[in-house]
User: Fold these one by one.
Assistant:
Number 1:
Amino acid sequence: MKKPPFNRFSEIVSAGGATVWGDPADIGKVLEGKEFDVVLDNNGKDLDAVRPVADWAKSSGAKQFLFISSAGIYKPTDEPPHVEGELVKADAGHVGVEKYISEIFEIWSAFRPQYMIGSGNNKDCEEWFFDRIVRGRPVPIPGSGMQLTNIAHVRDLSSMLTLAVENPAAAGGNIFNCVSDRAVTLNGMAKLCAQAAGLPVEIVNYDPKAVGVDAKKAFPFRNMHFYAEPRAAKEILGWSGTTNLPEDLKERFNEYVKIGRDKKEIKFELDDKILESLKVPVAV
Amino acid sequence: MASLVVVQHKQPSSAVLPSSFSDFNGARLTASVQYKRKLWQPKGALHVTASSAKKILIMGGTRFIGVFLSRLLVKEGHQVTLFTRGKAPITQQLPGESEADFADFSSKILHLKGDRKDFEFVKSSLSAEGFDVVYDINGREALEVEPILDALPSLEQYIYCSSAGVYLKTDYLPHFEVDAVDPKSRHKGKLETESLLESRGVNYTSLRPVYIYGPLNYNPVEEWFFHRLKAGRPIPIPNSGIQVTQLGHVKDLARAFVQVLGNEKASKQIFNISGEKYVTFDGLAKACAKAAGFPEPEIIHFNPKEFDFGKKKPFPFRDQHFFTSIEKAKSLLGWKPEFDLVEGLADSYNLDFGRGTFRKEADFETDDIILGKSLVLQS
C-alpha cells in the first residue's frame, strides 16, 4: 500500500476513522469479536468475493448492508437513460451479489456508479484527456463522439452513500444509480477538459474497426451510450447532485499540474497507430 | 361574442379500439413499481379538485394540444372559450370519441372569433368578456401577449405553451429549467414572451415541451416514420443515428396543462414537459415500427453534408442531442407521463395514421436523393 492513492489511507485515520488490513475472504477472523451497524462492500465484483463479507456481516449482527455494484450491468437500450429497475445482464457478477444481499438482508442497498473524478482516484478519467491536451497532442475518440456518458465528482457518490446510511428505512430494499445528474458526450468531455486547462484541443473521431484497434484498449470510456440517471436517489433519499464538470475539471487540472503529471514521459503508442492510419499529423 | 360551430367529421370505418379517445386520464399499465419506499411523497392531485369552475380562454385550441386540453377542461367543469380565426372547425369528433362525448363537448365549448394579431380587437373583446385564466397555446411573439394582459388586469393565471427549443445547445445534458437559453434561437419569441410574463408580474406558468406526438399531430414526427414504414422504404437517418431526443405524448402534455391550473406550486414557474425516457434516432425508427406492427426497418445512415436537398429537410429532428429533465414537474406538480414511447406511438398510430389519416402527404424526394447516391455511410 505504498502507491497512491492507497498510501493516503492515513487520511482516514487522521479523520477519526480506523483501518484494518486483511483478505476479505478471512474477514470473520480479521474482525473477530467486532460488531458494526453498517457494512459497505466497495471491493467485490462478484459473489465469490462478497459472500464472505455479507455472511460475516449478517452473522455478526450488522443491520444495513451496502454494496457498490456497477451501472455497467444495465442492458444496452435505445431509450436512455438507464433507470433503476430496468433490465440488467443476468450473468454479470455484480448482479449475483445484488440478488444475494437482497435475500439475506432486510436493509440492503446497491449503488451503481459509472465514472468518477476526484483527488485520489485510482483510475484515470479526466487525466486521459489532460495527458494529450497538455502535450498538444490530438485526442482520438472512437465513433462519432456523440456517445453520452456520466462522469460524477466523487463527492456526489459519497453524499449519496452517506444519505443511505443516515436513512436506512428509506434506503433499504433499493437500488441507486450512483452518478451525477448530467450526461456529457465524449467529444464534450474533451472540450471541457481543454477549457479547464485553458488550452486548445484537436478532437479526432475514428472508426476503431477501420483503423484496426481495440477501442477498449485505446480509450478509457465505453464506445456507446452509457448513461444512467440518479432518479431513485433523488426521489427516495432526497439527494441532489453537485457535480459541475466545467468547474470541477479546473480543480482537477490544477492538481494534475501540481503533481507534475503534465511533465511526465508518456508513450502514446495506440494513439500514434490511430493517427498514422488516419494520416493526422502530430506536432512534436 | 361567442358562436358555436359543430362539425361532424366523417371518418373511415375502423375496428373498435380498446381505449376511448376522450378518456385518457390514467387507464394505463404503468411501469412496474421501482421504489419500495419513499422518503417523501410528491404532492399534487390527479384532478383539479378544490378550485371552482373557471372562465377560461384558450388562444388556439382547435389543432392539436388544445383539442385535448379543451376536452379535459370542459370535463372538469370549466367554461372554456377558444379564440381562433375560425379557419379550422371549432370542434371535430375525434377517432374513438363516442357520439355522446362529442355532443356534450360541442354543446359546451365556446368560440370567440378573431385574429390575435389584431391587438385592438383582442384587447376590447377580452376585456368585454373577462376571463379568469388564459391558456396561450399558439402564441409566438411577446407582442401578441401584451394586449391580453392589458385586457385582463385581474387575470388569475397566464399559462403559456413555450418550447424546449429555447435552450442553448450543449454537450452536457439533459436541459434543466435553470439552464442557459439561446437568445438567437428560432424560438426566441417564446423566450421573449416568458420574459414579458415575468416582468409584468402576472401569475404565469410556462411549459416547455420537446417533441410532441400523438393523434392529430400536424408536425411530421411519427408520421414521417409511418409513411416510410408503410411504403416499405428504408429509413434514412443522418450521421450516427445515436443522437438522443425526447418525445412527449400530447395527452400527457394536456394533463400537465390541467395540473398547473390554480396550482400555487406552478406560480411563476417554468416546467419541461415530455416523456420519461429519451430515445436515439435509430431507436425511434424501431419504436415506430414496433408500435405500428411493422417489421424492424432498414436504417440507412447518411452524411447530410454530402447532399443538396434544396429547401427540403431530409429528417424531421434537429441533428443534435436534445432532451430535458422533467423532474421539476414530477416533483413539484406530482405529474408524470402515462405513456411510454412504444405505447404512445401505438396510440397515435391506432387513432390516426393507422386509420388512413395524416397531415402531410408522403414525400420521398430527399430519401431518393440519399438512396440514389451510392456514397452512403453504412455503420
Number 2:
Amino acid sequence: MEVGFLGLGIMGKAMSMNLLKHGFKVTVWNRTLSKCDELVEHGATVGETPAAVVKKCKYTIAMLSDPAAALAVVFEKDGVLDGICSGKGYIDMSTVDDETSTKISEAITAKGGSFLEAPVSGSKKPAEDGQLVILAAGEKALYEEAIPAFDIMGKKSFFLGPVGNGAKMKLVVNMVMGSMMNAFSEGLELADKSGLDPQTLLAVLDLGAISNPMFRLKGPTMIQGNYSPAFPLKHQQKDMRLALALGDENAVPMPVAAAANEAFKKARSMGLGDKDFSAVYETVRQFKPSSS
Amino acid sequence: MTLVCRPTYGKLLSSAPMLAITSPSPSALCPPLPSRLRLKARPFRFGTGGLLALSVPFRAFSVSASASEFPERIGFLGMGIMGTPMTHNLIKAGCNITVWNRTKSKCDPLISLGAKYKASPEEVAASCDITFAMLSDPESAVEVACGTHGVVNGLSPGKGYVDVSTVDGATSKLISEHIKATGALFLEAPVSGSKKPAEDGQLIFLTAGDKALYETVSPLLDIMGKSRFYLGDVGNGAAMKLVVNMIMGSMMASFSEGLLLSKKVGLDPNVLVEVVSQGAISTPMYKLKGPSMVQSRYPTAFPLKHQQKVRNSKVYHPFLFSWSVRKFDLLAQLENDLQIIDELHLLFLLACLYSTRLCQTLPRLTNSFTSVWLGTHIEVYTL
C-alpha cells in the first residue's frame, strides 16, 4: 500500500518509520526537508510539497503540531488542496479543535476527496512501538480503507462518527491527562515537603486503584528533573486550551481543567514549553529562595 | 498570575494560620525520614502494572498460617464499611476477636461469626493484647482513643493500639502521645483501598510509629492486606495517606469533568471510558467507577463525606500548604439545589484547594491547581 506522510516531527517520524518497516511505500514531506533524510535511508521517497505528495499517493496522512500547521499544510500554495481530487483520501492525525477539522474536511470534500480525522492518544514511545490509540471520525469508507495502516501504527482504533468527534474525544482525553499530571505534581511536592520519600509515594500509587502507565513512566524522571520531551508541554497546554474552549462553547464548568491549564501556562512562562509536559512539576517544585 | 477561587458557599477555614516560616527545613511536625526507614515494603500483588525498580523482597504468603503466630487476643473498634470486612477476614483466619461499635447492632454479623463483644473501647483494650480501630474521622478517632471509656483507660505496658483510621498527622500524634503515656505501643496504619479491597484482603497499609508493634502485627496486616509500608515516625503514615487520597480525589474530579464534557459535546461517555482504558492514563479506578458514573449509579464504597475529610486536613510544610472548605454544610445546601438540576449527573460540591508558596521576602499566592468535588444528590462518591 502506498501512502503519503506529511509532518515528520516526534510523532510523524516514528509513525512513518513503522509503516516503512512493515512494507508500506511511503512518500514523505516535512517543512524542514532535512528531516526527511532518515526516512529516505529506510526507503521513503520525498515529495517537495504537500501537493506533490497528494498527487502521487492515493492516501495521504498528516501529523502536524497544531491547528495553524494543519490548516497551512492544506490551504497554502502547493498545499494539499492543490493536489486533492476525486478518489483520493486525506487522513489528518494531528490534534486540532473540531472547527479546524471541519474546515479542512469541507475543503477536501468540496474538491472531491474524502476526509478522515484521526488524532491519536499516545506519545513518542507508543508511536515507535505501534501502540497508539487512534480516534477516527469522518468518512467511514476511508476509515475502512485506512485500517491496514492504522493496525501498524496503533494497537486500537475507534470510529467515532462525523468529523469533529475524533477531535473532541482527543481533547477530552488530553484534558483529563493534563489535570492528572498536575495532581501528580502536587502530590509529589506535598510528599517531599512533608518529609516523605517521593519514590515511596510512587511505589504506593503503583499498588493501588490509581496506578497508571503515565505515573509509572513519568514519576521517576520527574523526581530526577529529567524532562526530555515525549510530549512537549506547549502542545499539552494547547490541548488544555482547546478543551476549555470546547467547554466554553457548551457551557460546561471545568475549574479543575482551568486550574491545570494555568499551571501549564505558568510552565510555559518559565521557558519549559519545549520540555516534556511533566515539566509542569517545576511550577510547584521546591521554591528556590532569592539569594539574600 | 493569580487564580483565586472562592467558594460561594460554605465556610472557609479562614482562621487557618499561615505557618510561620522560621527555617527552610521541612516542618518539625513531619521530620524527614532517615533513609534506612524510608521504605519497608513487602508488596504481594497480582495484576495491573509493574513494580517500580525497588529491590523489595517478596514473601510467600502462607494462607494456612496458624493462629498461634498471631497475638492472642485482638480487639477491633469500628464496624463500618471498612472495619466489618477487615474483622471478618481476621476471624476467618482464626484470630480471637473482640469487637465494639458505637451502634451495637453493627457488631451482630461479627458476633454471629464468633467474635466477642465489649460495651466500650476501654473494655476492649483492657481485654485484648492488640486493639485495632477503624473510625470515620479525626474526631471519632480521638474520642475512641482518649474520650470517656476510651482506649487509654484500658491500655497498659505490653499492649498495642493500631489506628487504621485516616486522620491528619496532628490528630495521629495526639493519639500517639496519649497511648504511649499508658506504656503501650502505638502504630498509625491508615489504608489505601476501599470496600472491595477490604473484603478481598487487598488493602495497602501505610504505617508509622512503633517499629516493634509493626513487626508484631505484620501477620495480621498480611491477612487484611496485600502490602504494607513502614514509614517511620508517627505522622508519616497519615501524611502519605493524605497525599495519595489528594491525588486520587483530584483525578476523580478530572475524570468527572471529562465525562461531563464528553457527554455535553455529543460523545458517548462510555466510549471515553474505553478510550481512557486503552491509554497512558488507564487506572483501575476509572475502569471500575467509569461505567457506573456514566449511569449515575453510586453505590457507596467510600462516602464523599470522608473524601472531604481528607481535604480538611492540613499538611504543613514550609513552602506549600492547603486549606479546604468544610464540606458538610455545602453538601446539605447543594443537595437542595441539586433536586432541580436532575439532568446533570455530575455537579460541583465545592471548589477549593489553595496552594501557597511562601518565601522569606515575597509572599506570593499561586493557585496551581484548584480541585473540585463532583457529586450528585445521591451523596455518594465512590473511590
